[in-house]
Amino acid sequence: MTLKENLKQLQESLPPHVQLIAVSKTKPVADIQNLYEAGNLDFGENRVQELIEKQAVLPSDIRWHLIGNLQRNKVKYIAQFVHLIHSVESERLLKEINKQAKQNDRVISCLLQIRIAKEETKFGLEKEEAERILTTYKELYPHVKIVGLMGMATFTDDEDQIRNEFKELKSIYDSFKKHDESLEILSMGMSGDYKIAIEEGSTMIRVGSLIFGERTV
Ligand SMILES: *Cc1c(COP(=O)(O)O)cnc(C)c1O
Question: Checking CA distances to 115, which of 25, 148, 164, 189 falls within 20 to 30 Å?
Fold first, then answer.
């Protein structure tokens, strides 16, 4: 199947409240252009250098999502154009995003990444810390807007474990949402687990290999 067919098939299978982010990391600009022409405007990248190189040569109405670990000293390179940062995992990072957003006269939308996986390598905020940030950031950092949460499940074949981790994130999301109406995005689910994520309440999935094929680099 072609990329466009992969995209179309996936899109048609999704409930209307679930938004698809096509994760184009390591994939060539031509592939992104191809899917852009098929009507997909949302793309996710996890490396700043790669993101800025692609952004420079692709159509300006593409909505770029930063989905990976973001170093504070690199925020300045994407602050002018990034659409949504999915991976805010510290207040120090949020503070830097606020600073760079202000310099660009913008308000940058962000998701707080919550640690739900049991793996040491996965990162993210604990619930208590996320709650503290959510209840205090608005006065401190007016150039950021926290619009939801993101999480990654453990990399495992154990579907029950994946489901339980997504359930946990959904329950944290629901409890925060009661006090903050700006929270409208729950970013969870990738190629291998997006169906479970949607069953457990995801509103945004980040899918790479299922659309673009396996990554070889
Ligand atoms: C790479 C990546 C994805 C997409 O992974 P696939 O398994 O290729 O769908 C989603 N989210 C994050 C944070 C990623 O780094």
Answer: 25
Burial (CB count <10 Å: 0-12, 13-18, 19+), residue 60? exposed
CA of 206 to the centre of ligand 1 (A): 6
Q: What is the pLDDT of residues 89-122, one digit of tens each?
A: 999 999 999 999 999 999 999 999 999 988 776 7
What is the DSSP pairing of strand 185-188 with strand 63-66? unpaired
Centre of ligand 1 from the C-alpha of residue 129, in Å:
25
Distance of alpha carbon 214 from the chain centroid = 20
What value does the mean pLDDT take over residues 12-30? 97
Provide residues with CB under 6 Å of ligand 1.
23, 25, 46, 67-68, 152, 190-192, 206-210
Q: Closest Cα to residue 42, out of 69, 14, 70?
A: 14
Separation of alpha carbons 152 and 198, rounded Å:
13
pTM: 0.97
